[in-house]
């Protein structure tokens, strides 16, 4: 079983070579197909907001620490 | 031959549209995949070894890339301030956390063929997407600044002026891109990243106490003198931030997609990640060992940027050892400046729906390459501003990375458990448990740091010091 038994030569037909070797979703054109939006509600939304508040607060702490360190 | 059959169906898996436009990027990726298919068809050791060689890359790059300038400075500061003790097993633990986190990006990228930023925007909408992007871009820019500080400091050891040092780093970054081929870029950057292991021979030159090293690994002792102080907490956070950061999530997932990994390659992607973590752990621990002699000499290292460690070590390990140490700092800064600026460019392209691949010719990927170079050039220029508090930037970068990680991990957790896009590759219960533990640990470390800043004397009172 040689390599050529399995793989088409790219020079023969470039498009068919690409669509044969790559999975459909690997084609750059596939990225134009939208991914459906997920509805966020309840605990998930709460966790996202808590994490956002946590990060904003901690960045304020870091800024304060840098400011106090420089002064 | 047919394309590889997916193991399960998801909402993303659909046949190609009739008249699908094939791009240059697709052709390059198909050529890379062709070699993988050929290697997979073979039997025996050599085809398997070749398959491994073809499929490794993103995992090693992300792990050695995260052994960046500020990380190596953090490890060096750890060795110089605390010697061999608690932080030796702690660093190993942080890399285990990194494996847990990064493995999810391999699965996510291989299952969906979409980048991390793209999926966050698509699944959660632009409101949450822009938050994630802001975290990433801010963190990446600060980290890039720190990388150029490291390059400047490292080359400064050899007498290279700052402007020339950052110019050399920028030139290497551009040189790695000129092939506009993911595979070539990956191999060039991997070769450069391999130089991170230069810290191992330097550590050997210090004649480490292997008995103390083994004891520390097994017992987590001795714990830092003075207990849990703000200084110790900053080192703890710096060491965590030296290993798990948001840019790594975005980079490895996008690189997995750009490389073209599929569901069948996930095992290799995991091996790649673990191998990268093992190599990076070895380099990190070697750096701690390198500077442990400074701990025994009670040397103050608070304002060291990298090259100063090399200068301080010179009487102990000689000019050659010190030069290798400085070179290691330079390498760490350059490789990370490449990977981090690419992670920003990937994310920008994914969000703005512009072409984003290292397989793009310059004329087809102007936006992608422009963002990449703009980020790097702006960071490089900032480093040259006189009077900038460079040491503060280096220390703060890793702390910010730790603080930004829990929100980033929540997005990752939600995506990797999303059956609509992952199919049967959703995380198993044990993986979710590990991820939750990592989120709790990182959040707790952040909260402790916050408390230490707001009430600096609290820990001293609690520990009776």
Describe this structure in words.
The complex is a heterodimer of chains A (71) and B (465). Chain A has helices at 3-6, 14-21, 43-70. Chain A is mostly helical and 71 residues long. Residues 1-10 of chain A have low confidence and may be disordered. The termini of chain A are far apart. Chain A has 3 helices and no strands. In chain B, helix 13 (266-296) packs antiparallel against helix 14 (307-352). Chain B is mainly α and 465 residues long. Chain B has helices at residues 24-41, 45-55, 58-66, 69-82, 87-112, 116-156, 162-177, 182-194, 199-205, 210-219, 230-241, 246-259, 266-296, 307-352, 366-383, 390-416, 419-422, 429-454, 458-462. Chain B contains 19 helices and no strands. Chain B is globular. Chains A and B meet through helix 2 and helix 3 of A and helix 1, helix 6, helix 16 and helix 18 of B.
> Oligomeric status of the shown chains?
heterodimer
End-to-end separation of chain A in angstroms reads 73 Å
Give me the number of helical elements of chain B: 19
- What structural category do the secondary elements of chain B indicate? mainly alpha
Give me the secondary-structure category of chain A.
mainly alpha
**Annotation, overall tally of beta strands of chain A:** 0
What's the mean pLDDT score of chain B? 90
- How many separate helices of chain A? 3
Mean of all residue-level pLDDT scores of chain A? 81
Largest sheet of chain A: none
H/E element order of chain A: HHH
- Describe the global form of chain B: globular
Choose one word for the global shape of chain A. elongated
**Rg for CA atoms of chain A:** 26 Å
H/E element sequence of chain B: HHHHHHHHHHHHHHHHHHH
Share in β-strands of chain B: under 5%
Q: Rg of chain B from C-alpha positions?
A: 22 Å
List the helices and strands and how they pair.
The complex is a heterodimer of chains A (71) and B (465).
Chain A: H1 3-6, H2 14-21, H3 43-70
Chain B: H1 24-41, H2 45-55, H3 58-66, H4 69-82, H5 87-112, H6 116-156, H7 162-177, H8 182-194, H9 199-205, H10 210-219, H11 230-241, H12 246-259, H13 266-296, H14 307-352, H15 366-383, H16 390-416, H17 419-422, H18 429-454, H19 458-462
């Amino acid at each position: 079983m040689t390599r050529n038994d399995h793989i088409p030569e790219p020079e023969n037909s470039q498009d068919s070579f690409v669509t044969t070797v790559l999975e459909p979703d690997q084609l750059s054109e596939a990225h134009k197909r939208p991914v459906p939006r997920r509805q966020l509600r309840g605990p998930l939304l709460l966790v996202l907001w808590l994490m956002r508040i946590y990060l904003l607060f901690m960045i304020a702490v870091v800024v304060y620490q840098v400011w106090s360190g420089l002064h | 031959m047919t394309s590889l059959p997916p193991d399960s169906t998801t909402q993303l898996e659909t046949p190609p549209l009739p008249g699908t436009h094939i791009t240059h990027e697709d052709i390059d990726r198909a050529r890379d995949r062709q070699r993988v298919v050929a290697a997979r068809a073979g039997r025996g050791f050599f085809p398997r070894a070749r398959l491994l060689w073809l499929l490794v890359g993103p995992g090693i790059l992300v792990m050695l890339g995260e052994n960046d300038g500020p990380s190596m400075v953090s490890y060096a500061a750890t060795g110089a301030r605390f010697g061999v003790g608690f932080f030796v097993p702690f660093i190993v633990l942080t890399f285990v956390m990194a494996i847990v986190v990064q493995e999810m990006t391999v699965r996510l990228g291989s299952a969906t063929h979409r980048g991390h930023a793209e999926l966050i925007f698509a699944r959660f909408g632009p409101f949450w997407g822009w938050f994630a992007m802001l975290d990433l871009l801010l963190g990446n820019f600060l980290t890039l600044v720190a990388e150029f500080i490291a390059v400047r400091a490292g080359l400064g050891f050899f007498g290279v002026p700052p402007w020339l040092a950052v110019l050399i780093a920028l030139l290497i970054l551009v040189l790695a891109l000129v092939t506009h081929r993911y595979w070539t870029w990956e191999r060039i950057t991997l070769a450069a990243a391999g130089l991170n292991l230069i810290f191992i021979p330097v550590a050997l030159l210090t004649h480490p106490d292997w008995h103390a090293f083994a004891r520390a690994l097994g017992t987590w002792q001795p714990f830092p003198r003075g207990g849990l102080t703000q200084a110790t907490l900053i080192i703890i956070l710096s060491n965590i931030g030296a290993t798990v950061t948001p840019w790594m999530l975005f980079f490895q997932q996008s690189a997995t997609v750009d490389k073209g990994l599929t569901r069948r390659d996930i095992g290799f992607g995991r091996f790649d990640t673990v191998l990268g973590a093992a190599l990076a752990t070895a380099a990190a621990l070697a750096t701690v060992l390198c500077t442990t002699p400074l701990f025994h000499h009670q040397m103050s290292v608070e304002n060291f940027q990298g090259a100063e460690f090399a200068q301080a070590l010179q009487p102990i390990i000689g000019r050659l050892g010190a030069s290798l140490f400085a070179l290691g700092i330079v390498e760490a800064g350059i490789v990370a400046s490449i990977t981090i600026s690419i992670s920003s460019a990937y994310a920008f392209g994914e969000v703005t729906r512009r072409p984003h691949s290292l397989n793009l010719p310059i004329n087809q990927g102007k936006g992608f390459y422009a963002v990449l170079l703009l980020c790097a050039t702006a960071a490089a220029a900032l480093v040259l501003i006189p009077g900038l508090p460079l040491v503060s930037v280096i220390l703060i970068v890793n702390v910010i990375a730790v603080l930004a990680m829990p929100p980033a991990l929540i997005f990752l957790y939600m995506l990797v458990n999303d059956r609509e896009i992952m199919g049967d590759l959703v995380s198993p219960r044990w993986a979710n448990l590990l991820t939750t533990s990592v989120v709790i640990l990182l959040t707790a470390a952040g909260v402790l740091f916050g408390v230490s800043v707001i009430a600096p004397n609290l820990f001293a009172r609690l520990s009776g010091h």
